[in-house]
Specification:
Layout: H1 5-12, H2 14-38, H3 40-46, H4 49-66, H5 70-76, H6 78-105, H7 112-130
Helix pairs in contact: 2-3, 2-4, 4-6, 6-7
Length: 136
């Protein structure tokens, strides 16, 4: 199977795409902190087991941001970098899947769309990992 223009572009720009995603999540985290300050009672009501997963995802994402630059990447080493970024991406996907999957199960709006997309992307990713690498 040949790579499409879009997939080649995504690979070439993955650092920028990842940093943009991290920035959007930083804005999200700031909104959560604002909610905690503005309405602490409502904030505490929203805390639960998912908070641990969310915090873990934020920590992994910030480690991924730090190691998206050349010097920290060299310091970490290629193998550990790959492990960190793979684990971080799967954790991020799992966090979104649990969030949207839960909303889908409760029949909330259009939450099924990102749920199905995430399942599809994860399925493709896992399938690609199982295939042996082709030599050129």
């Amino acid at each position: 199977m040949r790579a499409s223009r879009l997939s080649r572009w995504a690979v070439q720009n993955r650092r920028h795409l990842g940093l943009a995603m991290a920035l959007s999540q930083l804005v999200h985290a700031a909104a959560i902190v604002m909610l905690a300050n503005l309405d602490p009672v409502r904030f505490r009501r929203g805390l639960g087991l998912g908070t641990v997963g969310g915090l873990t995802t934020y920590v992994l994402m910030m480690l991924m941001v730090v190691t998206s630059f050349d010097r920290p990447t060299r310091w970490l080493g290629r193998k550990r970098w790959r492990i960190l970024h793979s684990a971080g991406m799967y954790m991020l996907a799992l966090t979104f899947l649990v969030t949207y999957g839960g909303r889908t199960a409760r029949g909330v709006g259009l939450a099924a769309i990102p749920t199905v997309l995430l399942l599809g992307v994860l399925g493709l990713r896992l399938t690609a990992r199982r295939r042996p690498a082709r030599s050129s």
